[in-house]
Amino acid sequence: MTRDSNCTGDKYVRFGSVISTYRCNARCNMCNIWRFPTRAADEVGVEVYQKLPQMRALNLTGGEVFLRSDVDDIVTVLKTKARRIVISSNGWFVDRTLRLFEKHGNSIGIRISIEGLSHANDRIRGMPRGFDNAIRILTALHGMGIKDIGFGLTIQDANAQDVKDLYQLAKMMDVEFATAALHNSFYFHKQDNRIDSSQDAIAALQELAADLLRSRRPKDWFRAYFNYGLINYLQGRERLLPCRMAHDAFFLEPNGDVLPCNGMDEPMPLGNLRVQSWDEIWHSRAAERARQSVRNCGKQCWMMGSVGQEIKKHPVEPLKWIIAHKWPPRKIESPPKENRHPHSLFGVDGLSAKQTMQLIQIRPASLEAKASGAP
Ligand code: SF4
After folding, report:
1. How far is the centre of ligand 1, averaged over its atoms, from the C-alpha of 368 (Å)?
2. pLDDT tens for residues 75-106?
3. Which of 124, 151, 308, 336 could make an SS bond with 114 (beta carbons 3.0 to 4.6 A apart)?
């Protein structure tokens, strides 16, 4: 393997997202992963996870993580790699989840996707009783004294009206509440996700951000900023903070491929951990090409994986926004809408988002300016 002496990757990896499987028992309307399952025999195991570097935080995700029969072994190894491990789950497998937490206790956390109140959740996820199972897991974990637990939703037309109620429910249950917006990418096997009533979604996020700013917990203030970033994204605008995926963060595919992220239209492997060492991959020419793509990426997505660490690294910008909106409390305005949406979430002139993607160059104007060296 040729090493690039001009490697622009950071020495210390801050965040990793391990996609353990593409098998999934849910049938979500915004994600087609379940249509393209991996074969269990093709999914890498703990001997490959042993090769991961040390990092600050790690997300174990899927597909559905609890379809892996060796989830306990996976968690045991990953705990040696990161200071904080959070599992993302669809909340279906009650017994398997509780068994894992009985063993690992507060050394791990979990976020369960709840896509609305029971009717909306079960419809969006295509899982009758999905809401019940998710709540059953959360209440049981809460009763066991597990601290790092919560649920989250991906905001879309079908659940915008439930955001406020779910947030209140999370507060009553004393668990975390996470938000995301629809994205189109290779990972979801989706290019036609779209939001028709973005104003409803934006209004829900504005209300949520305002309430988070009223909290006494500084952590909630930064959550408010994250939600403001989602509003910004839904308006088709550039990210509020830079993206450093592949520089200090990565995704690992079930087949061992190391990727910059899960938000691009095509995967862009840096290398494969089944057959290479971490150092070979991180210092490879393929990794540099991927970093170049990240620096020029026009998707401008706003997902926790690529944003969470950036907020920690650049607290000044979020703090300025917090101060401006908290003391004294100020209405959270929606930024002006871009005409050309880099993520193409809305479609243009009645075309689907997919048709729009084929028609327009997805590079925001200011990125074009940066690329051409304009001030
Ligand atoms: S902005 Fe681009 S590189 Fe960054 S996470 Fe999104 S899709 Fe990936």
Report:
1. 16
2. 999 999 999 999 999 999 999 999 999 999 99
3. 151
Q: How confident is the model at residue 355 (pLDDT cuts 50, 70, 90)?
A: low
**Running DSSP on this structure, what letter comes out for residue 167?**
H
255, 272 contact by CB (below 8 A): yes
pLDDT in tens, 137-181: 999 999 999 999 999 999 999 999 999 999 999 999 999 999 999
Neighbours of 168 (CB within 10 A): 12
Give yes or no for a contact between 29 and 113, defined as CB atoms under 8 angstroms apart: no
Q: What is the pTM of this model?
A: 0.91
Cα 251 to middle of ligand 1, angstroms: 12
- What is the enclosing helix (H) or strand (E) of 207? helix 198-214
- Closest-lying ligand 1 atom to the alpha carbon of residue 305: 5
Q: Which residues pair with 111 in a beta bridge?
A: 88, 150
Q: How many CB atoms lie within 10 A of CB 102?
A: 10
Q: Of all atoms in ligand 1, which is nearest to the CA of residue 239? A: 1
| SS3 state at 185 | strand
Closest atom of ligand 1 relative to the 294 alpha carbon: 3
Tell me how far CA of residue 337 lies from CA of 197, 226, 232, 340, in angstroms: 14, 18, 8, 9
Q: Relative to the CA of 243, which ligand 1 atom is closest?
A: 4
Radius of gyration over alpha carbons of the chain, in Å?
A: 20
As separate numbers, helices (DSSP H) first and strands (DSSP E) second, the chain gives: 14, 9
What's the gap in Å between 295 CA and the centre of ligand 1?
9
Closest C-alpha residue for ligand 1 atom 3: 294
